[in-house]
Structures are given as C-alpha cells and as structure tokens.
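[[Local backbone shapes]]
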Amino acid sequence: MDMKTKELLAKSTGETLFEHTWRVIQVSQFIVRNLPLPLEQRTNLEKRLTLCAAVHDVGKVAAGFQSVLLGEQRDWQGKRHEILSTAFAANIAEFNHQDLLAILTHHRCIPSDGIKGIHGSLPTEQLPWQESQPALWRQMLDEWNQNREVFAEFWRQVCGAIKRSDLAEFGKVANLQYLGISDEWLERSVKFGQVKRVSAESRREAALIRGLLITSDHLASAHRRSQKIPRLSKYAVLKQSPRHFQEKCAVHQGHLVLRAPTGSGKTAAALLWARNNQKENVRLFYVLPFTASINAMHRRLIDLFGLKHVGVLHSKATSYLYDLQLESETSNKIKAQARAVAKKSLAKEMYYPIRVCTPHQILRYVLRGKGWEQMLSEFPQACFIYDEIHAYDPRVVGLTLASARLFASWGANVLFASATLPKFLERQICSVLNIDQSSVLAPDPNFPTDLEILVKKRHIVEIRDGSIENRLSEIFESSQRVNSTLVVCNHVKTAQQVYQQCVDYWGKDGIVLLHSRFNAKDRNQKERKLAEKSLPRILIATQVVEVSLDVDFDQAFLEPAPIDALVQRMGRVNREGKKPPAKVTIFSEQVNPHPLYDKERVKASLTELAKAQNPLGENDLVSITDAVYGDGYTGDELVAFEEGLNHPDIVEFDNRLLAGAHQDWIDEVIEKAGGSIELLPKVLLKRYEQLMKNGLWLEASALLVSVRFVSLASLPDGVINKHHDPWIIDCLYDSELGLQFYYGYSDTN
C-alpha cells in the first residue's frame, strides 16, 4: 500500500492518527491539571503523560494495520500495535520503565503466567528482547518500516504540537529493536516476578500512569474530555435554615459518623460535610446499597450540581439512563439508547467528578478488577459518603470498612451516615478510621431544631400471633378505616397468594402487587405510578419495598424479619412523622416454611419490639437495634465480616500491587453478587425478538426477570431452555402477578 499520498489512520471511521493522538494528549493534560496533587507533581506528571500519549499509538503506522483500517484486509492476525509503540518509545531516554509499561499495556495486560490472566494478555511470541527477536516481531517491524517515511512526517507534526521539536529526529533515526523494559516487569510470579523484584513505589507509579493513559485514550476515542471539578461550596444544598446537627456537619473537618432519623435532612447534612471537606480538585463518591436509592440520589444530585457533573454506576445503570433519556427524547429510541450506553461508559472513566454508586463498584477497583488503576488518581483526597452500611451483608460490610481504611491512608475523608446504625458498627467504623466520639454526630435534644425531630413518635407497633394468611380478615377490616395500607411478605409466592385473596375480596381496583419477579418494564411502571399518583388502597409487596419506594402509607402489616429490615419497612409508614403515630402490626409467623432470615435474630427483634413502650420514635428503634445485635456479628456472619475486613488484597494493597494487570474474576463476582440470573418468560419471546430485530436491545432486556438460583432448584427438567440466549423459562408471566412458578405454560401469544 502506497501511503505517500495518504494520511495515517487511527480509526476505521476515518479519524487520522494525528487527530486521535492530539485528542488523547489534550484529554490527558486536562485530567492531570485537575488531579488533587501539588502543582510541582502535576507539572511533572503532565509532561510524562503527554509523551506517553504522543507515542501510544505509533504502532498503528504498520502497513498491515493501516490496510485493516482502510478495509483492504479483514484483520491483522492478532498482532499488537502497542508493542511497536513501546519499542519506538524505548529510543527516547525520557521514558522510564513505568512509562514504557503503561504504553505497552494500554490495551492488554502483561503476559499470562499460564494460570492467571490468559484472556486479554499480551502474546509473548510478539515481544522483542535484546537477546531474542521472534519471527513474528520481525514481520511486524517490516510492516512498520514500510511506512517509515510518512511516519517521520507524522511524528514531526506531533512534536511540533507538543512543543518538543527536539524529539522530531527520532521519526527518522529510531531503531525499533527491543522494548526497553527489564523482564521482571512482565513477570506475574509472586516469588520471582514484578511484585518481588520491583519496589512498591515504582509499581504504583506505573499503575498510575497506565490508568491515566487508558482513561485518556477512552475519553478521546469518545470525543470527550473529563468535566472540570466543581467547588461544592458554590452550590446551595439546603433551601431552608439548617438544623443544629446540620450546622455541625457543615463545619466538621475529617472523617465523620452521622446518625440521624429518616426525614431529618441526613442527606443534606452529608453534603454540607462534603462541601467543607472538599479540597482542590477533589471528587465526591456517594455510595448507597440499592439501585433504586442510587437512581433517586442521582436525580437529586443532578438537581443540585447539574447533569454534566453527576454520574451513576450500578449493574442496571444503562436501563435507568435510557428511561431518563426518554423523558426528554421520546421520538428517537435508538438515539436515546446510544446516549444511555455512552453515559454508562463515561461513568466508568474519569469523566464525572461526582458519582453515585453501589459499594460493589468501589470494591471492583479496590480488589483490582478491570480498570482499577484509575482509582489511584481519583480516590486519594476524595470525599466518600457511605449511606446505610448496615444494609449490606457482613462480608461486604467488612470489605467496605477495609476500603475506607485504605482510602483514609491516602488522605481521603469518609462519612458513614445512617438512621439506625448499630453501636457495634459505630465502634468498628471509629476503629478503622482512627476517630473518637468527637467525630460521631447525632441530633442534639438541647437544641430546638434537633429536638423537633427527636421527639417525633411515628409508630405504634403491635406483635400479633399467627401469620398474615390467617389474619387476612383483620387486614381487610382495618383497611376500610384508612386510605392506604402496606402489606409486606417475605416471599414472592406469599405476596402473590395474598394479592389474589385481596382481589377476591375487594376487586382489582386499588390493589397493587410489587415484588422482585416482575421484569424491569413492569416493575418500573408500577413504581412510577406509586410515586406519581395517590397510593393504592392496599400495596402487597416483598422486601423490595425496603429499597425502592419513597412512599408514605397510613398503616402496615408485616411478616417477621430482623430489626434492620423491619425498620426499613416501617420507614414507609408515616414517613416524616407529620401525622399521629401510625399502627404497624408484625406477625409472629411467616407463611412460607422456608426461613429467609436468621431465626434467632428475628426472634430477638420481635422480643425487643414487644418490650418497647409505644409509640416509637427513631431513637427507640436505634436502642432496639443495639439490643438485638449486642456486641455484633456472631457465627458465620462474624467469619464473613472478618474475612472482608482483613482481606489481604486490601490490607496489603501496596505489597500485592501488580502493575499492568487486573484480576479477571472480580467482575464476575461483583456482577453475580446477588446469586441471580436473568430469564426470559416464554410468553414474552415474540416481543423480545421483535425488539431485538428493531435494534432496541435495552427495551428487550427490560423483559427479562431476575430470579435467584436457589429458587430454580425445585423446577423440573425442561422448564428452562438453556440453549437460548438469554435462557427461557416456560412459566406463566403477566403484568399483574409477575413470574409464577407454574410450569408447562407455553402460550406465546
């Protein structure tokens, strides 16, 4: 191919190599200038990253690679352009081993050891060393030299753009012979490789450069640059005068534990703390346990800080962003879908200065899943707000506390906020953050604005013998005396049965069912109606109501559960305490014989509630929570918590840091943490196929139902078709009851 009259390409879209290179350089410079580092360190880092960006794609000059981009040949037979880029960079003395490793691994990881990191690793048969140059490498080099003349002109142009004309000569004289990296950098072996033979400081520096180069490359390819980090102090987070405890949060410096009742302004207090603790170029991470609460917080922070500053990260974020996009762009669903995907991708990069996410997204980085290196730029000095940590399972609580301890060692400031934080967790948080009671804050009854929320009594709790099933007549009778009633069951099947009996008694009007076995399309529609319109006469729900709805019922009937789950359910009744105390009836037995929760903790929760004097306020519930949990986790829960808290990859983060690689298993563990699988009800197959045919894959995926693996154990063979992607389940599904485990239903109309 004659390149003398053609420009070198970087992308098959026609984007030239110079255009892409210049974009990466500009993005990298902008990112570095907005890092929370001293000016001298930023200046040095910018200089190094500019050079890395300048050379990162020069391997694409190879004739074969250019032919692929021009559509003249199908592929480049797996040959890696970044190896050529590194060999060129090795000619320039300013590049050290850390820089060269970043260039070499900006697409793939260091070579596999045959056990780990096989997928996505650099092929050893292409790597040139001083003592040996494989035949495949020599072939790649020949292809690169075919375009040497046009490359020299390209390199001269790049050097002019970055004001380094002193490097232009390398375009003509550079001798691509070897990588310039000592072999220990590419060895994964713990005993003999990089971790053993390279200092932790150098490994961390290499990982930092790699993370910055990769995110710069990704953003430049998307034709984006990261947003300038806003000063939170310029934004008003309160519309009314602050309560006393909010004023205290607003001036507190450093880590903080905040315990404040639901509806008291806890979120505003946390944001006031973040305003006070934000240093120059510091990012904010708001961590919540559930996707629904994350979506709600994302909307709230957008209203406060603007759409361009706030990103969202969780496993269902693309679908949420698609729905959000459709609110303003209903005419073109394909375009809305593309924008949702783009925004989800940007949230994974160093783009949004404020992010709302699950703890699992943070753990993905800490445990060194794919893309972990960018946290080395973002997490130091950052502000982290963890909300309702006790809602996580013990192992995730332990991992989260271990992560907070690590971030604190990097100069980050951490706030843990909760309405009912157990004392034992408060002690653990204080221990890992090395803080005392002066950094634990709650509303103070000595101040009128705080006393106002502390004296509110929201509930009258009654523990009744029996189960919901054999007390339905009482529920029906009581429901006639109020406008809205909440019924919460522990199992989907129970909720479906109770719903059917309510419909038999009342008719369908004013009766709503909500549980986890609705697909996203139907569940989102139900939740929107509950949020936008007046509440139904009766809502029958499972524990999804604990995490997904900001609603306010007049009374509730609940199946037995641990105190923390009961507190969340009760929080959906007389939510802000503006009405007289509302009645909450908790039954001593659940309908389904399968125990969903630890029996002893459920028993202790009901015992402590029965002893409490009605009416109950938030402080009463905190005391009951402390009494139930006592000194903390026990048995298997304690083992899981301590495993998380003492996880070696976090405790020994620097000692175990391997630059140029990630842990493959992390992503799967994070995504599958719920032990669930997405299934397509057979009745929806035709609709799914039509949406896929129309290119609306997000709407198609919204037809899938998430089902826990353990729930599938009782189904006979043949009910699930595992040969289809996604798996198909031959059970009844409709928008009224959701997925029902009555198999053999094959009507696909």
